[in-house]
Amino acid sequence: MTSSPHVAIIGAGTLGMATASNLCAQGARVTVLEANGLASGSSGRSVGVVGTQFTDPFDIMLRTHAIRQFRDWESKGFKFNHIGYLRLARTEAQMALFEQSVRMQAEAGFRSRVYRAHELTQLVPHMSADGLAGGIFGPDDGFIDPYELCNFLAEEVRAKGAAVRQACKVLGVKRVAGGYLLETTKGAIGCDIVVNAAGAWARQVAAMFGQELWVHPERHEAISIHLDRPLDYVMPMVMDLVNGEGTGLNFRHEKSTELIAEVHKVKSREPENPDAYNDQCDEDSKVDLAEMLLERVPDLPGASLGRGWAGLYPVTADHRPFVGPIDMSEPTLVTAAGAGGYGIQLSPVIGQVAADWALHGAPVSAPGTETLRPTSDRNRPVSPT
Ligand SMILES: Cc1cc2nc3c(=O)[nH]c(=O)nc-3n(C[C@H](O)[C@H](O)[C@H](O)COP(=O)(O)OP(=O)(O)OC[C@H]3O[C@@H](n4cnc5c(N)ncnc54)[C@H](O)[C@@H]3O)c2cc1C
Fold first, then answer.
1. Spatial contact of 280 and 310, defined as CB atoms under 8 Å apart
2. Is the CB of residue 41 below 6 angstroms from any atom belonging to ligand 1?
3. 138 φ, ψ to 5°?
4. Is it true that domain 6-44+146-215+317-372 has CATH number 3.50.50.60?
5. Residue 264: its pLDDT value, please?
6. Any bridge partners for residue 237, and if so which?
7. 344, 346, 349, best to mutate for ligand 1 pocket (most atoms within 8 Å of CB)
8. 27 in the Ramachandran plot: left (φ > 0), alpha (ψ -120 to 50) or beta?
9. Three-class SS state of 31
10. How far is CA 168 from CA 1, 33, 171, 184, in A?
11. Is the distance from the beta carbon of residue 47 to the nearest atom of ligand 1 less than 6 Å?
């Protein structure tokens, strides 16, 4: 391998493009291979929320790395909508975790505050606090447009000499001396290192290399809510889920007369076929979502359901992403996949760690993230229940 290895990244979603950005920053030669278009997979179907309101130190540490890069991209002109993020609590035990989170976040340089149930209307005047103990709010969190992020990063890496090849599907692979020959719909492409950033297709891509990778395509649906007059405040991201407890309902401002709502929890974990799933929101799901919303924000002015869509969370058994080689005897085949419902907000740190594995053989810039490698104890089937 040369001092400037040629890395091929399979997949131009947020994980692939963030990996390309981190590799180019370190001088690698990069080719991104995308079967369709930029952000055409899960990334373009997401709700784009980025936040740090978590209670686990590891989750906050990952986001510390991610937010540093988002701020850097923002300083270069990328748009980050700082609408704030409110995570709701139903129990005093959850509120105690939130108090700890405020301290951990402050150490990491993030602003956040705990609100008691009766104070929640300061943030969301239409909120019903029924059944709630309170919430944690981070004013600097918000949302981004993942399609814009992929395009912003594509422009950045092209300016550094990388190639981003769309409509270029990887069909197969040959191992050759010192690297790989990838067979694609646009001919053969040689490289030293491969990063599998194929999202819900990552299992299929790993299989081309004779490796088993348990990334499970899980269906999720989102819907826009139209309001017949503008709210006189910005609806922050509101999330009713703490460490798996809560309904999973989440909603946020999109425009002054439009919200976007989603349910983070699923009823069925049956895997979808990423090449042939119904990408529209089911009617039953729309009704369920409307009922949950009515309960939490009962008097939204003239709210009606708008366009709905479905997409896939690329999920792992322990709900943490896979970053690193599956097989340490083949360190030139790096996985960056399985980010579940957090692949937009975690894409910068996953890209950073994947680039470390590709160029340095270890996650040198983010100590503690070795645990994200798809080791045999983590890389196992996802239970469908
Ligand atoms: C409804 C919904 C809401 C969500 N909301 C959020 C949110 O608010 N915040 C958040 O952080 N996350 C959210 N997510 C999750 C997030 O969208 C995913 O975790 C993330 O997009 C995964 O990115 P990725 O790059 O791994 O995969 P993808 O974006 O799917 O990219 C993989 C790419 O690989 C390409 N590919 C596959 N096979 C091949 C091949 N053989 N050759 C070449 N290319 C190939 C595909 O075409 C695809 O473009 C949401 C997801 C959904 C569905």
1. yes
2. yes
3. -115, 110
4. yes
5. 86
6. 85
7. 344
8. left
9. strand
10. 25, 6, 9, 6
11. yes
Sign of CA pseudo-dihedral 154, 63, 327, 213: negative
| Intrachain domains 6-44+146-215+317-372 and 82-141+217-315 with the same fold | no
Query: Per-10-residue mean pLDDT for the chain, 385 residues long?
Result: 85 98 98 98 98 98 98 98 98 98 98 98 97 98 98 98 98 96 98 98 98 96 95 97 94 96 83 93 90 93 92 97 98 98 98 98 98 98 80
| Domain segments of the chain as ranges | 6-44+146-215+317-372, 82-141+217-315
Residue with tokens 């944690």: 136
Nearest CA to ligand 1 atom 37: 198
Q: Return the axis-axis angle of helices 57-75 and 146-159, rounded to nearest 10°.
A: 60
Tell how far the Cα of 27 is from the centroid of ligand 1, in angstroms. 26
pTM over 0.85: yes
Token pair of 224 as six digits: 């826009």
Q: What is the pLDDT of residue 1?
A: 52
Asked if residues 383 and 271 have their Cβ atoms less than 8 Å apart, the reply is no
Q: How far apart are CA 382 and CA 198, in angstroms?
A: 18
Side-chain-side CA neighbours of 54 within 13 Å: the count stands at 16
Measured from the CB, is residue 66 less than 6 Å from ligand 1? no
- Does the Cβ of 70 fall within 6 Å of ligand 1? no
Residue 299 amino acid letter = D
Fold classification of 82-141+217-315 is: D-Amino Acid Oxidase; Chain A, domain 2 (3.30.9)
Closest CA to 43 of 278, 345, 350, 353: 345
Position 10 scores a pLDDT of 99
The predicted pLDDT at position 301 comes to 86
Q: In this structure, what token pair is assigned to residue 235? A: 């609806």
pLDDT of residue 385: 63
Interatomic CA distance for residues 349 and 343, integer angstroms: 10
Centroid of ligand 1 to alpha carbon of 214 (angstroms): 16
Determine contact, residues 302/222, Cβ cutoff 8 Å.
Answer: no
